[in-house]
Amino acid sequence: MAATVGVSGDGIDHRVRILRASLRASVDRTTLDGARAIADEAYERAAELEDEWGLACAAALRGQVHAARGHAAAVVDDLSEAAERARASGHPIEAARALRGVGRALLDGPMPVERAIARCERLRADAAGHPLAEQDLAGVIGWLAGEFHAAEPPIQRALAAAAHARDDRLRASIAASWANLVLATEDRVEEAMALADVAETWATDPTALVGWRTARARALVRLGDVERADRLGRQAVSLAEQTDSSDLRANALLHLAEVLRLSERPNEAQPFERRAFRLLERT
């Protein structure tokens, strides 16, 4: 727990409640409504106390709830605020963690690619001195730019750092992204399957839950297991459609279309491709 000098007992109590709510929400989606209520109450009280660190903690919990629901644009807003307030209150490690979350949310497409890349470049500069955040943001930039081979080394380093830091949510998100990346660049099926296994083990947010399914579906169809690939691809689309992320939904649709084409069912693939392109045209 961070230092609490100069903060009332009420403010400290709210921080403890935030921590508990965050831990529960990371493993149990049924607690998300309660976590949001705790975040809102804590934010209001921290504002009354002019407690900058309390405001950062409350904003971060809001961002966590929005991430669990796939609301990427809201994640960007909340975690940007959390990073700014954490930095202002002398908590640079927590600020870097929030910046990393902003980058991950930008990967899910709440703004045009060119603006997202520019924003991530600024985030990486702000995260200087924090290798996990820097590496993860470098991977996001490469992915957004379509430079998949350039994106792979920083993603690999970020995955190792997340595992070392025992940041399981980030570990799942990175593993899911990397699994799809190795299939986008080369047919490294066994590697993609192993990464999908890692992502499945730790996934709690929509990006990872969709990502490991699309990666495994794309790998399985290459191995000839058409039925399981089809089922997982459709599950991914269903999960993605519950979010507000146009990119996440479009990618799930395109990956399902890929599975169908590799299954020699091009006519079935076309409607999913058209839906994906319509989504992308609106972003």
Summarize the structure in words.
The protein has 283 residues and is an all-alpha fold. The chain has a domain at 198-283: Tetratricopeptide repeat domain (Serine Threonine Protein Phosphatase 5, Tetratricopeptide repeat). It contains 14 helices and no strands.
Short description:
With 283 residues, the protein is mainly α. Helices cover 81% and strands 0% of the residues.
Strand content: under 5%
Sequence stretches where pLDDT stays below 50 over 5 or more residues: 1-6
CATH architecture descriptor name of one domain: Alpha Horseshoe
Q: Strand count, sense and closure of the main sheet?
A: none
Query: Helix count, per DSSP?
Result: 14
Q: CATH superfamily of one domain, called what?
A: Tetratricopeptide repeat domain
Helical/strand content category:
mainly alpha
Order of helices and strands: HHHHHHHHHHHHHH
How many strands appear in the DSSP assignment? Answer: 0
Relative helix content? over 70%
Distance between the termini: 40 Å
Assembly state (oligomeric): single chain
Described by the principal axes of the CA atoms, the overall outline is globular
The level-1 CATH class of one domain: Mainly Alpha
**Whole-number radius of gyration?**
19 Å
Q: What is the third-level CATH name, the topology of one domain?
A: Serine Threonine Protein Phosphatase 5, Tetratricopeptide repeat
The pLDDT mean sits at 90
